[in-house]
Amino acid sequence: MSYIGHEEAWAEWRRALSGHRMHHGWILSGRRGVGKSAFALAAARELVAEPGVPQPSGEHPDVLYVTHPPKDDKEARKKADGKPYELARNIKIDQIRALQQRLNTRPSLGSRRAVIIDPADDMETPTANALLKSLEEPPVGTFFLLVAHRLSRLLPTIRSRCRVLRFPEVGPEDMDAVLAREAPQADAAMRAAAIAAAGGSPGVAIDFVELDLGTIHQLMQRILAEGDRDFALRGRLATAMGARPDRQRQQAAIELARAVVAEHMRHVSHAEIPALVEAHSELVRLAGEVPTYNFDPGLLVMEIGTLLSQFAASRASANG
């Protein structure tokens, strides 16, 4: 499957692949939901394939994929049984150490091995430092592809040892085509709302439809525009989120609030932009903390609503 906006990344990757010396570390940087993980898997298979060596169609022994493990032993048993399971908040240091043990052996089929860390920005500092040791002295024939939704969260020492492939946001017309294909249940109005909320990320737009975020989107827009002095809209926002929203829904709500704020910046005066920037910065902070901290969902929703309502209050005060 081809992804919109990947042409330049593929061109740069294949130029490097055909060169005399392939860089050992790559960061795939861009918004969540633009297809970086799919690119990493496809690029890794290109990297390890060699002429005359049959390549498996399924899982490849020389493509090592590290991502969030199950949350605990109970969730691990669910995974083993093929049932839905909850993920841990972070990639663990034990996973990196186990990976490094694998790297002491030779690749199985050819002379190259690819390691994908997805997402690399969900490693805490001790885990990132453990990975850094392998990036500093990579085994011969080993190449790293680090998927990063928030490049700034990676350690500077990791960024300095990698080349960065950037994945752009997708335009509205292409987004509409993706939604028509991947979410045919969405009507034109729902697709338009999803596109406005997604900030150029097809994955976020699809989540918008599948997670039924239309009501939440409307409430966020109202709070930002009107304020919420009596907390009524924030109460409705909490109800729309649900009593126990999972981490995916929490993350989607923050991304949606960020998109609402970003879109609003296009329609306000210059004097109002600093307050919006402050609200957006706080939402960025929350987005970075949700995968790590165990937030109370109700309090998280209220904090999102309060950040939006504070802008409306500051604007009303400024306008007298």
Automatic annotation (TrEMBL):
InterPro entries the record matches: AAA+_ATPase (IPR003593), DNA_Rep/Repair_Clamp_Loader (IPR050238), P-loop_NTPase (IPR027417)
Biological process annotations from GO: DNA-templated DNA replication
All residue ranges annotated as the AAA+ ATPase domain in the record: 22-169
Highest rank taxon of the organism: Bacteria
SUPFAM superfamilies named in the record: P-loop containing nucleoside triphosphate hydrolases
One annotated Gene Ontology cellular component of this protein: DNA polymerase III complex
The name this protein goes by in its record: DNA polymerase III subunit delta
